[in-house]
Design goal:
- 38% of the residues lie in helices and 18% in strands.
- The chain is an alpha/beta fold.
- The chain has a single domain, classed as 3-Layer(aba) Sandwich (Rossmann fold), CATH 3.40.50.
- Strands 2-1-5-6-7 form a 5-stranded parallel beta sheet, with helices on both faces. Strands 3-4 form a two-stranded antiparallel ribbon.
- The radius of gyration is 14 Å and the shape is globular.
Length: 138
C-alpha cells in the first residue's frame, strides 16, 4: 500500500498548498520531455523549481544540481522523473536528508524506499501526476 492510497487525495492537495520549493530529479532541458513540461507548468503557478540533473547546467532559468545533497535551497517536495532502477538510491538520499515529501510520477514505485521514507515521517505520493493533481485542486 502506498501513502496516497492510505490517506487519500487530501495529501496531494495539502502538499501542493504548503510547498514552495520543488526539487525535480531528472528535470530535462528538452521541452518535449514530460519532466520539463510539468516543471514549467509548476513554475508558472508560482513554485520555485530546483532542477536536479548532473547532465545540465541550467533548466527553466534555474541552476541545476547534480544530486539532492548538493542543493543549497530548502526543499519542500521532491518530484521524481527517473527510471525505477534508480529509485532506491534516490530514496536513500532523500531519507538521509529528511526531505518532507517525495512525489513519484505514475508508473514509478519503490516499495522498500517508500516504506523506509514513511517510517521516517516523509510523505510519499505515487500513482498520480503532480500537474494533474494541481489542476484538479487549484
Amino acid at each position: 500500500m502506498h501513502m496516497f492510497d492510505k490517506i487519500g487525495s487530501n495529501l496531494c492537495q495539502d502538499l501542493l498548498k504548503k510547498c514552495k520549493n520543488i526539487a525535480v530529479i531528472g528535470l530535462s532541458p528538452d521541452p518535449n520531455r514530460p519532466s520539463h513540461r510539468i516543471a514549467k507548468y509548476l513554475q508558472g503557478k508560482g513554485y520555485r523549481i530546483i532542477p536536479v540533473n548532473p547532465e545540465a547546467d541550467t533548466v527553466l532559468g534555474e541552476i541545476c544540481y547534480p544530486n539532492l545533497t548538493s542543493v543549497s535551497i530548502p526543499i519542500d517536495l521532491v518530484s521524481v522523473f527517473r527510471r525505477e532502477d534508480e529509485l532506491a538510491a534516490l530514496f536513500e538520499e532523500a531519507v538521509r536528508l529528511q526531505v518532507p515529501a517525495i512525489w513519484l510520477q505514475p508508473g514509478l514505485y519503490c516499495q522498500n524506499g517508500e516504506k523506509q521514507a514513511m517510517e521516517q515521517g516523509i510523505a510519499v505520493v505515487t500513482g498520480h501526476c503532480i500537474m494533474t493533481e494541481h489542476r484538479r485542486w487549484f
